[in-house]
Amino acid sequence: MQEIRPADLPGEAAYKLLCAVVVPRPIAWVSTRSASGCSNLAPFSCFTFVSHRPPMLGVSIGRRQDGFKDTARNIHETREFVVHIGDETLLDALHSSGAVLPPEISEADLLGLELAPSRLVAPLRVARAPIAMECRLHKVVDFGVNQFFVGEVLLFLIREDLAANGKVDARRLRPIARLGGPNYSTLGEIIAMTPQLEQSGPQSAVSRGQTPTPGDTR
User: Fold this and answer.
1) 122 C-beta neighbours (distance < 10 Å), count
2) Given 73, 86, 88, 175, which residue has the most CB atoms within 10 angstroms?
3) Chain-centre distance of CA 140, in angstroms?
4) Is the same domain home to 132 and 155?
5) How far apart are CA 50 and CA 23, in angstroms?
6) Distances (CA, A) of 60 to 144, 145, 182
7) For residues 175 and 187, is the Cβ–Cβ distance under 8 A?
8) Which tens digits make up the pLDDT trace of 14-60?
9) For the domain that residue 73 is a member of, what is the CATH number?
10) Three-class DSSP category at 10
11) Per-residue pLDDT reduced to its tens digit, 183-216
C-alpha cells in the first residue's frame, strides 16, 4: 500500500486527494441572497444531512485567500439558503455555476436559469430543480480552513412525479454526483438489498449456523 502523510502534501494536494477518494459525493446546489439583495448560486459536494428530527442539512464551505466565498458570506449575513438537488439535465448549469464571479453577478441570470420565489425564505430557488429545500441557519462550526454550515429544513419542495408515500423515486430523480477533479457520475445501477437480520434471543441467525444473505455480516 502506498503511504501518504498529509503533512508532506503541498498546497491543495490534500484537498484533491480527499475529493478523489471520498466518492461519489452528493451535490448541494445552494442559492443564497446577499444583504443587499444579490442572488448567488453555487455547487458544494461536501454535503450531507445531519439530523432527521428536526431535519437538518450540512454543507462544508472552504475559504478563499481573500476571505469568505459568496455563499458563506451571504449565509452569515441573512441566515437563510436553499439547497437544490440537481438532475442529469442540469449538469452543465450546475458545473458552470461554480465559476468564481464578482458577488454582484447572478450565476442564474448568466446561465439563463429561471428563478422562482421561495415560500419561507428570501433566497430564490432554481425553478427547474427537481428538489429544493428551504433552510434557516442553525449553526456554523469551524473545521480547519472550512466552515460547516448546518441548516434546518423549513420546507421540502419535490417535483410531483418523484414522491409517493413519503419516498422519492431515485430512478426518476436521476441525481448527479461529484468525483475527483471536474468529473461527475450518474446514478448507474441500483442494487436492492434485503434487510439485515436482527438478532433474536441469545444467538443471531449467523451464530446459529444459518447462511447469511448478502449484507448480513458486519
Assistant:
1) 16
2) 86
3) 16
4) yes
5) 18
6) 11, 10, 18
7) yes
8) 999 999 999 999 999 999 999 999 999 999 999 999 999 999 999 99
9) 2.30.110.10
10) coil
11) 999 999 999 998 877 665 555 444 444 444 444 4
